[in-house]
Amino acid sequence: MKRSIIFFILGLVFGFGVKWLIDISCKDSCKTEDEATKSLVAVVADGPNVDISTLPVDSEGFITLFDGKTLNGWRGYGMEVPPTSWEVSDGAIHLKGSGTGEAQVEGGGDLIFAHKFQNFELQLEYKISEGGNSGIFYLAQEVKDAEGKEYLPIWQSSSEFQVLDNAKHPDAQLGIDGNRQSSSLYDMIPAKPQNSKPAGEWNQAKIMVYKGTVIHGQNGVNVLEYHLWTPKWTQMLQDSKFREGGDFPYAFGLLNNMGGEAHEGYIGLQDHGDDVWYRNIRIKVME
Fold it and tell me: pLDDT value at position 287?
């Protein structure tokens, strides 16, 4: 009994000693995992932008973002030129897929139009390959990690209009209530009705952003609506893969204040490794 008491006392002394040494060595530099996660702040690192006043405007007030012949005005996310995985083919912007899903080819990457938009209506057409996956980003930022070393993925700062072959890509069966199917707000709100056309056929897409109200449209029908910068938006993020303290420690803060202080950002096209085509891309700026 005496021996047990002695070992117990020694254990307490040793335990407190170790804790004391840790506290001394840490001082103010040690943080809990939760504190460290909440302290991560991305660094804005915007690349060169273009002057849209030189672009054609049609009779409806829409600015042409893609001329059907060149990638003028477009560049890679975190780059000064377009990634080599993108080309212009038959009047459309075409991603030359790697055939390995998310594993991008060398020289690949997401494509953005080099101008930030605030309130707008974006219209375009897309065609996805069989079993393909892609997406349209908006209000995106070019941001790096807290140390300013590496670019964060574009989807950590931007909402995504999902582009998908619902029939064959497994993402269509994941998420909740179809919120990863075509034209959905990826992983958050399902598009209803789900009216996408089969792989290989052209779909019409519309994204409207006005003072925080966002509408997705597909093939002439509005399929979802939500409101940025509201308590409901914050709760939606908390209920998603982008939640605070989750696997993506920068995403919650960026998305909760999507568009940054100016509430504006880039339009982007996703390189998800699968062939996809975009054409007739135009945007109307709404004051």
Answer: 83
User: Cβ distance 281 to 126 under 8 Å?
Assistant: no
Inter-residue contact 191 to 178 (CB < 8 Å) = yes
Which of these, 205, 223, 220, 217, lies nearest to 126 by C-alpha position? Answer: 205
d(CA 281, CA 205): 10
pLDDT in tens, 7-61: 444 444 434 443 333 243 343 444 444 444 454 888 888 888 999 999 999 999 9
Instruction: Identify the residue with better confidence: 107 or 91.
Output: 91
Q: In sequence order, what E strands does 178-257 have?
A: 203-210, 213-218, 221-227
Q: How far apart are the first and last CA of the chain?
A: 82
Residues 245 and 238 sit within 8 Å (Cβ to Cβ): no
Whether the Cβ atoms of residue 69 and residue 88 lie closer than 8 Å to each other:
yes
Comparing C-alpha atoms, which of 166, 171, 223, 165 is closest to residue 193? 223
Is pLDDT above 90 for 63?
yes
Write out the two tokens for 204. Answer: 């019409």
- Smallest CA-to-CA distance from 222 within 179, 186, 193, 181 is with 193
Work out whether the CA dihedral 79, 115, 188, 98 comes out positive or negative: negative
CA distance 251 to 41: 10
Supply the pLDDT for residue 80.
Answer: 94
